[in-house]
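Entry for the shared binder. Reason: the reviewer on the internal report wants the predicted structure included alongside the sequence.
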Amino acid sequence: MSQPSKEKKHEPFASLNFVEFRYFLLYRFLFTVAIRMQGVIVGWQIYENTHDPLSLGLIGLAEAVPYVISSFFSGHTADVVNRKVLMVCFTVVFLFCATALTIFTFNNSSFLLTYGVFPVYAIIFISGIARGFLAPAVSALFAQIVPREHYANATAWNSNTWQTAAVTGPAFGGLIYGFAGVTNAYLCVVSLIVLAFVMTFKIKRHPLPIRKKIEPLMESLATGIRFLFNTKSLLAAITLDLFAVLFGGAVAILPMFAHDILKVGPEGLGFLNAAPFLGSVIMGIVLAYIPPLKEAGKWLLYCVAGFGIATILFAFTTNFYLAFSLLLIAGMFDCVSVIIRGTLQQLLTPDEMRGRISALNNIFIGSSNELGAFESGAMAKLMGLIPSIIFGGSMSLVVVLFSSIKFPELRKLNLREIR
């Protein structure tokens, strides 16, 4: 890999000088668009068939359970098996899942009319296993593609790419579902995953970092857990994000909110799903130019609190445009948290432990989205839609207060001081 000229201070495009990193970002964009499209399609399809908020929560549970279980092994796997190989293999598994969901919709969804929504949950379960293995492999490979001195800049562009895709996916998924039908929407998902698979051939098979000690599986997992719990600033950032997302996310019940409160179809749902990620894209571009390095801990706390306040205000709106705006603002706040935590993880994690620490991060953070979806669906059924959203946003504020007291080192976090 040819080295670019020495990075200038706050050079916004420094990491994009690496050709392989650009292909990596293209893979992430195509794959994320596909998965986010699929999420909107599945959510609307299931709610149309059941009209039950708990059924939306079960989508998250169906993915979270296998995701958490597989993540205990996937981190170790990503540290002992070539990460590019893992990326290719589990991208193919996602392709299989998307193809199966497409087949279920043939003959005007007669398959689902006959067997109910259980087959969809089964496919989501399989995709949860694949996601559990894919996430740490991709995260660890990212650190091998980009030199250490460019981690902060590369993390901003990596996050921005994901967020851009997360805007595009729901919007396109809702529009295609609304105007062309569910089968054509799933076919687009399949096509995008195929294109993402092609991009993997442009990424090298980087050799695994040399490990000082070859450990058995359980000892390897214990080493990763000890490292995380001994690295207080990283543990604090992960804990804050975990509970904020677990309680504060309203995205999982957006199909119900769009259908029952705003009275919009799948097209409107697609735009609502895209709103938080559009906000993240806007903030991601800003942070690429002005990275939140100094006083990062204080910014993390402020932005998670802002996320909770935006969520509470969202619960009271009955106007589509206001709802869209509040979700956009929530996404802007969330982006700051994602970039600070991602940069901190890359800076503090030794190369030979990146797979395990990424997997642990995914257990706490990645699964919190799906577990949060289950919590949102269950609370909406128990408390009602609006009270459940207010409860979630309020709990995010409680988490901020608790974290600022429990982890005083988080308030002092300065990423510029980490070497």
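Summary line for the report: The chain has a mean pLDDT of 80.
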